[in-house]
Each structure stands twice: as structure tokens, then as C-alpha cells.
Design a protein that fits this description.
With 400 residues, this protein is of the alpha+beta class. Helix content is 39%, strand content 18%. The protein contains 14 helices and 13 strands. The strands form 4 sheets. A 5-stranded antiparallel sheet has the order 12-11-10-9-13, with helices on one face. It has a 3-stranded antiparallel sheet with strand order 4-3-5. A 3-stranded antiparallel sheet has the order 7-6-8, covered by helices on one side. α3 runs parallel beside α5, α10 packs antiparallel against α14 and α11 crosses α12. The radius of gyration is 29 Å and the shape is elongated.
Length: 400
């Protein structure tokens, strides 16, 4: 006989309007409520207080802070038939909440928990605590703007509000420096964590914000590079990224030996010169020339035009990060929407969205595609996301 959620949704909104959502382990309960509203196409936001976190701060002497422990410690009486029932737990939480209020006489801990550690009086000009509380709790990319509207920092998160609250609660030197520069916040919801990861890379590369460090140098410190030598031949080289700050890598690697192996494989497949891929340091013609597996570019027997055709084919082969082309279908920005990422010709091509009730063709998806500039880091993001998220649908595309 209980009502369906949609029958009471409006009442929930009205009853909680202007109120603080309080629960023991509040994110758990709040998550269910938000999910139900999401299914109805409505975004529900309230300030949160967690009695579990408050009890940890205000009663640190207790061994545990679950409801059972607090009920016993505070002498809360509940009829046996009410315990572990919805209303019984609510009544216990109310009494715990009231006790905690009495302990926190000046309300400082309550305010700190309510604002997730952000001190409203220390926020920079143009940023209010109300602005932070109004941010979406969804995946996306956010932009911190400085004087004149310039973007000084780009970040991504599965929960935009929570991450920005952390930024403004950070009291480290780095955090304070960043906070002092911020005058405005904008964001782009993505629905998908993967799209947030990919969009963040693109935006940092494009905008070059002051407080963003260079991407992937630590995770992928090696790469394969190419340049034209004095004779016009294209030479390939596996090397450390830090030595080539102003050059883009054909592909990045975590381990130097992986880069050398990829280069050696391309050399064999495309009949490249060992000296021109820097895998043979001898002064004489490369070791492949006597056995007929080098066409003689190392001793002037093959023109640059002829040789470079194969080098460009090798570059395409090395740069191809995926053996197959596919679509990844993930959650969208609402229940009525799905997101997708297109990998084609071995590269990330872009992302887009479609109505979850539709069955779009590949041409439809291409038309809806938000084209993205490919960067070497993106392939690792896609592969890593695939390995950790079984719920993502991977749809192979037909060859050709």
C-alpha cells in the first residue's frame, strides 16, 4: 500500500525546501533520493549533514560510530520492534542529532561539516558559499576563472560540487594560492566519467591554464618522435619526453623498452633503416642493409621521397592505439540520455549524446559527434576506463 516515489516527489521537494538533509552516513540515503529524482528528470540538491561524521569529531572517545554504538552510548531507548526499521532509525538519528547539537555549543563543527570544511569568510571575491552549494553533484569538467575571465585551472570530477568544495577547503600553500586567483566558476556536465577525463585533457592542452601541470609526463615519460634529417629522410627516435618539450610524440609509453620494441616492430614491418630509427649506432650502413631488409637510405641508395612513404605508414601504424574500431556507450547527463565515445582508425575521434530510447545508426552518431583533438594520453584513458568499468558497453564497428 505504500505510494510510488513519483506520487510523493513533489511533497518531498516542498517539505525539504530550504532545509538541511540530515542522516547517519548521509551520502548513502541522499544518493537514493537523488537517484529517484533523476529518474523523474529532476535535479534534487540540498545541503547535507552527516551525524556519523559529526559524532566522530565531537565524540572521538567512542570505539565506533554506527547507530547501534551511539544508541547504547547515549542511552537512547527504542522499542525492540522499531530498531532497524526506517522510522526507528530516524527517531534514533534525531536524538543523536540533538545530543550533538548540545555538545557543539558554538555550532562551529556543524557549520564546518555543513560547508564541507569551507570557511565562508575566506572565500575569494565573487565566490559565495551559496554558489558552491548550488553546483551539480554530477560528473563533469570545471573551470576556475581569474581576473578578466581567464581560465587559471581546469579540473574534472565525478562530483563537481564535492571536488570544488575540496578546493576551497584546502589550506595548503598550493590551495591558498589557487583560491586567491579565482573570481568565477563555470562547468560542463558530461554524465560520463570517461568523457570528463577526455574533455579535461583537451581543455588543458587548448587553454594552457596557469595552475595546471603538464599532463602525463610522469605516467608516460617516454615517446616516439620523428624529424627530417639533412638529406630529407624522416628519422624516428624513441626518447624521454622531457627532451622534446616542443615536439608532439607519435605515441607515449610508460616504459622505455616498450617504446623501443614498438619502434623495432615498425622497422621490421615497413623495411625501415636501422640507423634512421636510431636502433643501430654503427658508422657503416645499418645491419639490415647486407641482408636486404633495408633499401639503403643509410648510404644514399634510396631517395627521401621513396623512403618517407614507408616512414609515414610506420607512423600511422605506431600511432594506432587500438587494433579495432568501436563505440563506447555510457551514462548520459540524464536518464533519458546516453553518452558515447567513438574510436575509429585506431584513435579517439570525439564524444556525443543520444536519446536513450533511440537506436541511432553509426551515421547518426557521427552527425552528433563533438569532435575532439586527439592527444596521446587519451588512448590510455580509454583503455584504463574500459578495464575498470564493466558496465560500459563496447560495440565493435564493422571494418571498412
Amino acid at each position: 500500500g505504500a505510494p510510488k516515489f513519483h506520487e510523493i516527489a513533489r511533497a518531498v521537494v516542498e517539505i525539504t525546501d530550504g532545509c538541511v538533509f540530515v542522516a547517519h552516513n548521509v551520502r548513502f540515503d541522499y544518493g537514493f533520493i537523488c537517484e529517484e529524482f533523476n529518474r523523474l528528470g529532476y535535479r534534487y540538491h540540498r545541503k547535507l549533514l552527516c551525524t556519523c561524521q559529526l559524532s566522530r569529531r565531537l565524540m572521538p572517545h567512542l570505539p565506533r560510530h554506527n547507530l547501534d554504538t551511539l544508541i547504547r552510548a547515549l542511552g537512547i531507548h527504542l522499542p525492540p520492534d522499531k530498531r532497524h526499521r526506517a522510522m526507528g532509525d530516524v527517531l534514533a538519528t534525531v536524538q543523536i542529532f540533538q545530543t550533538l547539537q548540545q555538545i557543539d555549543t558554538d555550532g562551529a563543527e556543524f557549520e564546518s561539516q555543513l560547508n564541507q570544511g569551507v570557511v565562508a569568510s575566506k572565500l575569494p571575491a565573487g565566490i559565495s558559499i551559496e554558489l558552491l552549494h548550488g553546483l551539480p553533484e554530477t560528473p563533469g569538467v570545471y573551470y576556475l576563472h581569474g581576473e578578466g575571465g581567464h581560465v587559471v585551472y581546469v579540473g574534472k570530477s565525478t562530483n563537481i560540487k564535492k571536488r570544488l568544495m575540496q578546493h576551497f577547503a584546502d589550506r595548503t600553500k598550493k590551495g591558498t594560492t589557487l583560491q586567491q586567483s579565482v573570481r568565477d566558476i563555470t562547468y560542463a556536465e558530461t554524465g560520463s566519467e570517461l568523457i570528463a577525463l577526455l574533455l579535461e585533457i583537451q581543455e588543458i592542452k587548448k587553454l594552457q591554464p596557469l595552475y595546471n601541470r603538464a599532463l602525463s609526463k610522469k605516467k608516460h615519460p617516454y615517446g616516439i618522435f620523428f624529424a627530417e634529417n639533412s638529406s630529407g629522410h624522416l628519422a624516428l627516435l624513441a626518447d624521454a619526453v622531457e627532451k622534446h618539450e616542443k615536439r608532439s610524440a607519435v605515441r607515449l609509453f610508460q616504459i622505455f623498452e616498450e617504446a623501443k620494441l614498438s619502434l623495432a616492430t615498425a622497422m621490421e614491418k615497413h623495411r625501415l633503416c636501422g640507423k634512421l630509427v636510431h636502433l643501430d649506432s654503427r658508422q657503416k650502413p645499418c645491419h639490415l642493409r647486407p641482408i636486404g631488409r633495408c633499401e639503403g637510405a643509410c648510404e644514399g641508395a634510396e631517395t627521401a621521397d621513396d623512403y618517407n612513404v614507408r616512414v609515414r605508414e610506420a607512423i600511422q601504424s605506431i600511432a594506432r592505439d587500438f587494433a579495432e574500431d568501436f563505440l563506447l556507450v555510457d551514462s548520459g547527463r540524464s536518464h533519458e540520455e546516453k553518452s558515447f565515445v567513438l574510436v575509429e582508425n585506431g584513435r579517439f575521434q570525439g564524444h556525443g549524446y543520444f536519446d536513450s530510447s533511440d537506436s541511432p545508426t553509426l551515421d547518426d552518431l557521427r552527425a552528433a559527434l563533438e569532435l575532439g583533438a586527439h592527444h596521446a594520453e587519451m588512448s590510455y584513458m580509454v583503455l584504463g576506463y574500459l578495464s575498470k568499468n564493466n558496465r560500459v558497453r563496447k560495440i565493435p564497428l564493422p571494418k571498412g
